[in-house]
Amino acid sequence: MSENDARAAQLHEWLTAGLGRPIDRLTLASADASFRRYFRAHANGATWVVMDAPPGHEDVRPYLRVARLLEETGVHVPHVHASDIEQGFVLLEDLGSTPYLARLTNGEDVDRLYADALTALAAIQVRGRDAARELPPYDDRALQRELDLMPEWFCARHLRLKLGDEELGLIVRTFDFLIEEALAQPRVFVHRDYHSRNLMIVDDGNPGIIDFQDALEGPIGYDLVSLLKDCYVAWPRARVVAWLREYRRRVAREGLAAGASEREFLRWFDLAGVQRHLKVLGIFARLWYRDGKRGYLADLVLTLDYLRDACARYSELQAFAHWLEARVVPQLPAANARELALR
Fold first, then answer.
1. Alpha-carbon distance 340 to 332, whole Å?
2. Overall number of domains in the chain
3. Taking 60 as the threshold, does the pLDDT of residue 33 lie above it?
4. Are the C-beta atoms of residues 202 and 77 closer than 8 Å to each other?
5. Of 261, 274, 265, nearest in space to 243 by CA
6. Tens digits of per-residue pLDDT, 224-273?
7. Which domain holds residue 335?
8. Cα–Cα distance, 244 to 267 (Å, whole number)
């Protein structure tokens, strides 16, 4: 029996003998970009989702803590019915199997879905102000660790670039600038992956929000970028700015620090996006080279496009923007083609 099969058997035993739930069958619901897996448990026509987080690789306690904090803000996260910290199992409400992305890629209900998502995010940021203080800080060390993924995994490993001292110096200066800008933003509850694959379409309290266990207290622009500059679906700049403008008005009315002007709020948003998309380039590459998950390679193109667009808009990033165009952009098509050919 494989390790995964052994875990599934252990999970079934926990549900049936430990919790007294007569489960008809278990089906694999999803596996995310970590060691976690999610099963759907079926019993008498009802379903639940069960998280399998192998101890030694994953710790369910951050998930349980953040789930409680988010539920207290009134947003719809999977209700926790039971948990076993030592075994790494959590029994959850089933939010269904339709992520936002499935509708958005077909252009369905776009304005309604984003209105719901922005309403939920406002609740998290406004009502979650006290809760955010219970989270670890999105500090300079965390920001730097994320940024360092880009030159290591995307540039050196995926693009096979050999960076000279001058280039490395430019990268260091750019990263220092982005960290300083991120730390200067108002601090809020940050989900960290508030995007179309982690927002589920539900009938009551839409959206259902998942994959929040890595939440931190950090910059106000970060989750807005995750949502509105989503690495899996894109919208025209004018539409994004309109959503952002309305969001700023909403949270400002509710007492959240939202900048001295729309221009300042947009700057926070864009620069948080530069940091995020640099990180994501590194993560997507690492998911292939370290974890064997090649499906994210195709998403590098849109992620890099977001980065190019934002860097070109700010004078402080002009040198970095020129470097991207000269050294990075020309290399990506060949790098993707090379790796995708290995299928």
1. 12
2. 2
3. no
4. no
5. 265
6. 999 999 999 999 999 999 999 999 999 999 999 999 999 999 999 999 99
7. 100-340
8. 11
Contact by Cβ (8 Å): 257, 297: no
Find all residues with CB under 8 Å of 91, minimum gap 6, and list them: 15, 19, 41, 48, 49, 50, 80, 81, 82, 83
Output the CA angle 284-329-337, nearest 5 degrees.
60
Please give the span between the terminal C-alpha atoms of the chain, in angstroms, as a whole number: 27
Q: Are residues 151 and 231 in the same domain?
A: yes
SS3 29: strand
- Torsion angle of the four alpha carbons 336, 169, 143, 247, in this order, in degrees rounded to the nearest 10: -80
2 pLDDT more than 50: no
Strand order in the sheet with 25-31: 25-31, 37-43, 46-52, 89-93, 80-84
Question: In a 10 Å sphere around its CB, with 0-12 CB exposed, 13-18 middle and 19+ buried, how is residue 35 labelled?
Answer: middle
Q: Are residues 9 and 124 in the same domain?
A: no
Residues 242 and 225 in one domain: yes
Q: Is 138 helix (H, G, I), strand (E, B) or coil?
A: coil
**178 and 244 share one domain:** yes
Statement to judge: residues 156 and 255 lie in one domain: yes
Cis before 207 (ω within 30) = yes
What span, in angstroms and rounded, lies between the C-alpha atoms of 34 and 243? 32
- Rounded to two decimals, what is the model's pTM? 0.94
Same domain, residue pair 45 and 106: no
